[in-house]
Specification:
489 residues; alpha+beta; 5-stranded mixed beta sheet; 10 helices; 11 strands; disordered C terminus
Length: 489
């Protein structure tokens, strides 16, 4: 049953995880925006000043060349001395690209005639003297930079100097404007990032909180024994895979609970039969219906033995579940163990109309010889109990890659392919009836599977081409045999 948040208390609340995620995203975005602003503003500031220095130096060189040509033509600076209009006209003609379209912005500041000073060959000011006398500054402030001078040449003779304001002086006048604009832009950037962080962190926190809340509620219901709870598996992210693993866990727990309930019921059923027989026999003897004879006591002894056999099987399976099976693994000749037990049982098989066919080769494995004998006995009992007469049991022992493989197959009746995977379940019978066909406990194949797994092997059922059931037993080969082990005793 998929989990639904129908109760208002079940809806996701703002958890600590959501708050942490929200704070991390918000602080990260603010820090990134601050660092970006600092680094970009520093880069722009330095690059802009360098650009202005190169641009102003180029303008000064252009204007100095023009002044040198004018001095060559006129022979003196009298035409410019105290003639601001001529000076402005000369600067405009050299630095403005078009008289109808004066430059704007910073270019206008750099091309202003008031930003230059002309000195003669004796370093006396010709025009622009105020530039040499800046207004008084605050004593706490650093002094403004001095003007830069470019020599004016006429041929090989220096006839004067052209001074211009360095970009630092110009920038000093524009600092406040620049800072105001940058602060306004920073407020816009930080505000936008803050709003985006709120939306992103809020949405992500709500989404993650909803998923986490659903998992929390589902886990709580699982701990209370409700194994029917399921989570949504939409998406392909880690949370979706976690939901799939959670659903798999819930299915496994639910299957284990059903198996445990069925296991207890089956054990009770299996124990009820011999106990009911014992009770009936004893009550009959007490009522005088049956005499207390050796034969009647033998019948009771047989039921007690069957009951003890069932209890022993249950104990062995419990030890297997706890990985506490008593195993003494040593190098064992698998061919000898298998063929000897089959030869001992040949007469019993033939008495039930079953023909035995054996093909084998010498292979050594690391196993417990007593547990191997118990394994062969369980398989023999299953074959004799569920193979019709006349029939056949064929056993093949061969090497396959680095493993010893035993093929154990018999004739009809067979087992439906859909039931093969359940054959080793405890107390499971294909026919679905709990009536025992041969008096077995229904645990033989479960014990066989536990025994072979405890010895590092595998037991796999399949359909036999003979018309019955095929068991494939696989053991790892023993490759480190010493000469003393290989020699016969």
């Amino acid at each position: 049953m998929p989990l639904s948040l129908s109760n208002r208390r079940d809806w996701p609340r703002l958890s600590r995880l959501s708050l942490k995620l929200f704070a991390i995203i918000l602080i990260t975005n603010v820090l990134i925006s601050g660092l970006v602003f600092v680094f970009i503003s520093r880069s722009l500031d330095q690059g802009f000043v360098n650009y202005l220095e190169r641009s102003q130096a180029t303008r000064a060189e252009t204007l100095a060349n023009a002044l040198g040509e004018q001095w060559s033509q006129r022979g003196s600076w009298k035409w410019l001395r105290d003639n601001p209009r001529a000076w402005q006209s000369l600067v405009r003609s050299q630095l403005w690209s078009s008289e109808r379209h004066p430059p704007s912005g910073i270019d206008r500041e750099l091309s202003d005639a008031h930003g230059y000073v002309l000195l003669d060959e004796l370093s006396n000011p010709v025009i622009g003297e105020p530039l040499l006398k800046p207004p008084p500054q605050d004593p706490d402030m650093p002094p403004p930079p001095e003007p830069h001078f470019v020599p004016i040449r006429s041929g090989d003779k220096i006839v004067g100097q052209l001074g211009y304001l360095p970009p630092e002086r110009l920038m000093a006048r524009m600092d406040q404007i620049f800072l105001d604009r940058q602060q306004r832009n920073l407020v816009i950037i930080v505000g936008s990032l803050f709003l985006a962080s709120l939306l992103l962190a809020g949405g992500l926190a709500w989404w993650l909180g909803r998923r986490a809340r659903s998992m929390t509620l589902a886990t709580r219901r699982l701990t209370l024994g409700d194994y029917s709870v399921r989570l949504s598996e939409r998406g392909r992210d880690e949370l979706s895979r976690l939901s799939a693993d959670f659903n798999q866990l819930a299915e496994t727990l639910e299957a284990n609970r059903r198996a445990r309930q069925r296991w207890v019921a089956d054990i009770a059923h299996e124990l009820r039969t011999p106990l009911a027989v014992l009770r009936g026999e004893i009550e009959a003897m007490q009522d005088g219906v049956r005499p207390l004879t050796v034969d009647n006591l033998g019948s009771l002894q047989q039921e007690v033995g069957q009951l003890g056999h069932l209890v022993e099987d249950l104990r062995l399976l419990a030890q297997s579940d706890a990985d506490a099976l008593d195993m003494h693994l040593v190098p064992v000749d698998l061919e000898e163990s298998l063929t000897q037990r089959l030869d001992d049982s040949r007469a019993r098989l033939e008495s039930q109309g079953l023909e035995l066919s054996v093909e084998s080769e010498a292979l050594w494995v690391r196993a417990d010889s007593q547990r191997l004998r118990q394994l062969w006995d369980n398989l023999l009992s299953n074959t004799m109990a569920y193979t019709d007469s006349p029939g056949m049991l064929r056993v093949v022992l061969r090497q396959r890659q680095q493993r010893a493989e035993v093929i154990w197959e018999d004739t009809a009746p067979g087992v439906p392919a859909s039931e093969l995977s359940r054959l080793t379940e405890r107390l499971y019978r294909v026919e679905g009836s709990r009536n025992r066909r041969s008096g077995g406990s229904g645990l033989g194949l479960s014990i066989a599977s536990a025994l072979i797994e405890a010895q590092g092997g595998e037991l796999t059922p399949s359909v036999s081409p003979l018309g019955g059931l095929r068991w494939t037993l696989s053991f790892p080969l023993e490759t480190t045999l010493s000469s003393t082990v290989m020699e016969p005793a």
